[in-house]
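User: I'm putting together notes for a lab meeting next week and I want to include a structural view of one of the chains we've been expressing. I don't have a solved structure, so I'd like a prediction I can at least talk through. The sequence is below, exactly as it appears in our construct file.
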Amino acid sequence: MIDNPVPWPNGARCAVAFTFDIDTDSFLHLSFGAKMPDMVATTSWARYDEIALPRILQIYRETGIRQTFFYPAWCMERYPQLVDAILKDGHEIAHHGYIHESMSRLPSRDVELEWIVRGVEVIEKMTGKKPRGFRAPNYHFSRHTAAILAELGFEYDASLMDDDVPSLYETSGGNLIGLPSSGALDDWAQFVNNSEIGSVRSVRSPEEAKNTYMAEFEAAHEYGGMWIGVWHPWVSGRLARAGSMRTMIREMQGRGDVWIATMEEIAAHVRCLVARREWAPRRVKLPFYDRPLPANDIPPQGSR
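Assistant: Thanks for the context. Below is the predicted structure for the 304-residue chain, given as structure tokens.
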């Protein structure tokens, strides 16, 4: 069902990454402003990252894997002890905005560039290296984002959902490796129920969520695809959910033909395949549209 499966390292059937977005309370400041100081209960929920992240790192140590954490730079400055713990274990830190700002809602290309650069500078200062990867907060990716990332020397983007395997994003500023995921692999849809932030849904059990995640994994494994979880410590780092994640990792490792890697490692592998002409990804020109459609191409809209 995948026409162009990737030749993964050592004959692996698929590539897997358990990525975490460490947003803590950044998105609350951005979305609620002056109201945020009174959102004490919701803030405590988001700050559960301080409890969950050490637990996640312990699971990674137990299972012997290194993974990628997408980090708003403001959160790194606010909670430096979490950054230190991640770096101590050799994990990758990638860019996730400065304070979880939506790129597609910023007023101009120059403003978007300014805030991406601000995040780069913080990450470089705190980790000793420039970030190689990016995931747009809220998946809000503007017409300018890809070109800005390429111009700044990013290697990959993990914001889009356009394929089951890596793509090559071609932009006016250069190209990027695209490492897409799927909404089915985002833990927000499984677990987040909080009326104060406008997210109201039935909370699924860890076993129900695991069934969804593993169904996606089985398909990726069968057809030579890629499985990228988009998770959050304060969501999936709760006790029962973290235990479910540990079980999933061990089940995947037990197959013997699954490559669990950082996003940087996956992107580097794809880049090498392309350079050696051993595999050709689908080429995608970004942005898809650089301006709205002409008004006469769209019929009048209104309610009846």
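A couple of points you could mention at the meeting. The radius of gyration is 19 Å. The chain has one domain: 9-297.

User: Perfect, that's what I needed.
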